[in-house]
Amino acid sequence: MPQFVEQRWEGNPGAIGGRAVRRSFTYRAFVPDPIATLDPQVALSAAASAFEAERAIHELNERAGASGLEAIGPLLLRSEAIASSRIEGYQVSTLNLARALVDPRAARGSARTVAANVSAMEEAISRADNPSPITKDDIENVHATLMAREPEATPGRVREVQNWLGGHLDSPLGAAFIPPPPAEIRPLLADLTAFLARDDLPPVAQAAIAHAQFETIHPFIDGNGRVGRCLIHLVLRRSGAAARFVPPVSIVMAARPSSYIQGLVDFREGRVGDWIESFSVACGNAASHAAALAGDVAALQVEWLERAGRPRPSSASARLIALLPAQPIVSAPTIRAAIGTSQQQALVVLKALTDAGVVRQISEGTYDRQFAAVDLFELVTTYEERIAGRVRAPAPDGT
User: Fold this and answer.
1) CATH architecture of 38-291
2) pTM for the whole thing?
3) Dist. CA 223–CA 230, nearest whole Å
4) What is the mean pLDDT of the chain?
């Protein structure tokens, strides 16, 4: 059974916030059960939800491969990074994230933070393609990538201090949840990696359990939520359930944060089946919405080709339109590198597609002007709002 262990917090006489936060006190940290050999007993509805979610993820990956829609992979990854970071309080638009990814050195604030989340997810996906067993070092490497520019978070190193969720900033007084003490972390991570090595569990159920256990351990000073959601990608990709890309389940979670938090509470309190069912439904919804986005992107590309005068498939214009979903912000130098054309031809293509309304200039300058596929960003915003259940107010002209 999971247990609470009593720990002593030594007060700081200089702490701000009154006598209550300066005093020493005893608190209870939660230590979960090991899961390496867990045999989850779940209700039929939870098992059915996990099966349906896996089927939806398979269908999404097969459809994208058959339809030539691989380009939505980067789109989904960016949407996942934005939503995963939003759960942690970081807000950034798809356009600003794309700009940060084009020029990381110029990225600031939340855009820089979310761009690092994209890199961490790419690290997890890259590791998932390696068949060797996942290790604690692999998890630490994802964290190191995520927090590379935040040294106070000790990138790539498990914590040596107690952390907590909610309550006061400088003590665990009144915390909503207190993870295991530092001495418990390494054994729990070793147990988690043993669980990740199993191949006898349905992939969606395994991803659900691994994510919830990681969030319960909370092994790093900061960035645990984002690394934990990277683990979802790692499990589903590694299992073969999501051979090309993982649907952005974080968008569904971010749209219903109270349900997500309750699911983690259910897991910690032993209601593993309830959590698996909730997680599976979120995965299935994410896959269905991603499939709809894939269709919308394909339709938008057809519309772009019509606007551009139906260029030949081998032309620079057609090749750039094929590239835009994966690289929605371009410049003459990036076009040259991506489709192997000359600087002059890249400029000609940019002018033609700007005149056709396919891209729009978004920066000043003469040599390295940036152009964005604005319609695509609008499409992704609508997609995210659809998942969140929001309906956009009509434009002033009634459209």
Assistant:
1) Orthogonal Bundle (1.10)
2) 0.87
3) 11
4) 88
